[in-house]
Amino acid sequence: MTVLLTIVLAVQMLAALGMIGLILVQHGKGADMGAAFGSGSSGSLFGASGSANFLSRTTAVLAGVFFACTLALAYFGNLRPADSGSVLERAGAPAVAPAASGAAAIPGTAAPVAAVPASAALPPATPASGAAQIPTK
């Protein structure tokens, strides 16, 4: 799966770079006014109007490839296994003992702190709402 994601990401980056280059090469609508007075691109590689069609069609194709790669990356990025839980449940992290304070924080002055079960160490988490979200000093 990671090889497929790497390939799709590489194609997306190449399409993005190609679009940037093609968009910078194209001329704007105001450039056609200069062509009417003799400074046109009739001597260019694609002819008088051939470059506009070729460059705009190539840009549209690259934009479609970029869009398809973006959708594919979004789809594959959101795939999760059926037994997925939270990150902490999958990691199996042990409970952390609370930090010592006062004289117990100085090494050698007090007995080590016994590990407290995770359920007793922290109060139940409730989401903050309203004014409780504003940090205080």
Automatic annotation (TrEMBL):
TM region positions: 54-76
Main location: membrane
Record localization: Cell membrane
InterPro entries xref list: SecG
The keyword Methyltransferase appears for this protein: no
Key words of the record: Cell membrane, Membrane, Protein transport, Translocation, Transmembrane, Transmembrane helix, Transport
Top-level division of the source organism's lineage: Bacteria
Record carries keyword Membrane: yes
Topology in the lipid bilayer: Multi-pass membrane protein
Family statement drawn from the similarity comment of this UniProt entry: Belongs to the SecG family.
Function: Involved in protein export. Participates in an early event of protein translocation.
Protein name per UniProt: Protein-export membrane protein SecG
